[in-house]
């Protein structure tokens, strides 16, 4: 069974501020996209990495990846205006022999390769939909609608039953293609699309290092994690 990993990297990432697309912002002197692709390519079970780049930036992304030691086979295709468009286009570009697909956000550049392998192995073991998740540290409350800054609390949710979901998320190729073909609304993640089909989605333990970079403060934290890895020789 051949495993391919898709990286949708065509978005701007406006929450991180103006400038280059988020996936191309530097982290430790290297674009986040390169970190993410390296993590996927170093996983034992990933055979191919497909990057969905900005439509007008395919050549530039190919050149960027060629400058860095990647490892696994990498291809670059034109992505779309939204994340789901990029994933759909990358799915269509996969070779015929790919039967398992991971989808990983470039905004999670420090996801460990062993997490990638854990998700891939679960899919290869016959589970059609697998997502990584970590327990929540904060209390979570459901709130009602409000016209101002104050909102009424409707319920306090049982934290033990909740997980913060990360990527990479893994699926059988046939199931993910079916989920995208049936999608009528934009989902928060690919697992959500599969859930709408009524197919069970399993959660494997995630990693605290697979956090999403969405703000300048996240970049500061990521730089610290990267520095610690380099100091310990784990980079």
How would you sum up this structure, described in words?
The chain is α/β, with parallel strands linked by helices and 235 residues long. It has one domain: Spore Coat Polysaccharide Biosynthesis Protein SpsA, Chain A. The chain is 32% helix and 24% strand. The chain is built from 7 helices and 12 strands. Strands 1, 4, 5, 6, 7, 10, 11 and 12 form an 8-stranded mixed β-sheet that branches. Strands 2-3 form a two-stranded antiparallel ribbon. Strands 8-9 form a two-stranded antiparallel ribbon. Strand 2 and strand 3 form a beta hairpin. Helix 5 packs across helix 6. It is globular and about 50 Å long. The model has no long low-confidence stretch (mean pLDDT 92).
Feature tags:
235 residues, alpha/beta, Spore Coat Polysaccharide Biosynthesis Protein SpsA, Chain A, eight-stranded mixed β-sheet, 7 helices, 32% helix, globular
């Amino acid at each position: 069974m051949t495993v391919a990993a898709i990286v949708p990297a065509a978005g701007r990432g406006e929450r991180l501020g103006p400038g280059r697309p988020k996936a191309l912002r530097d982290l430790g002197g290297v674009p986040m996209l390169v970190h993410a692709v390296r993590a996927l390519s170093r996983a034992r079970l990933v055979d191919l990495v497909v990057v969905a780049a900005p439509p007008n930036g395919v050549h530039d992304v190919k050149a960027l990846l060629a400058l860095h030691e990647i490892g696994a086979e990498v291809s670059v295709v034109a992505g779309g205006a939204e994340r789901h468009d990029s994933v759909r286009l990358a799915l269509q570009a996969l070779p015929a022999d790919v039967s398992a697909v991971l989808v990983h956000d470039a905004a999670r550049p420090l996801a460990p390769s062993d997490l990638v392998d854990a998700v891939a192995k679960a899919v290869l073991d016959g589970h059609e939909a697998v997502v990584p998740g970590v327990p929540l540290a904060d209390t979570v409350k459901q709130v009602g609608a409000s016209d101002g800054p104050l909102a009424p609390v409707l319920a306090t949710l049982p934290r033990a039953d909740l997980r913060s979901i990360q990527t990479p998320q893994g699926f059988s190729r046939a199931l993910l293609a079916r989920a995208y073909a049936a999608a009528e609304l934009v989902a928060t993640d690919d697992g959500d699309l599969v859930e709408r089909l009524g197919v069970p989605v399993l959660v494997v333990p995630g990693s605290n290092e697979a956090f999403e970079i969405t703000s300048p403060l996240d970049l500061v934290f990521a730089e610290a994690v990267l520095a610690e890895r380099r100091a310990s020789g784990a980079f």
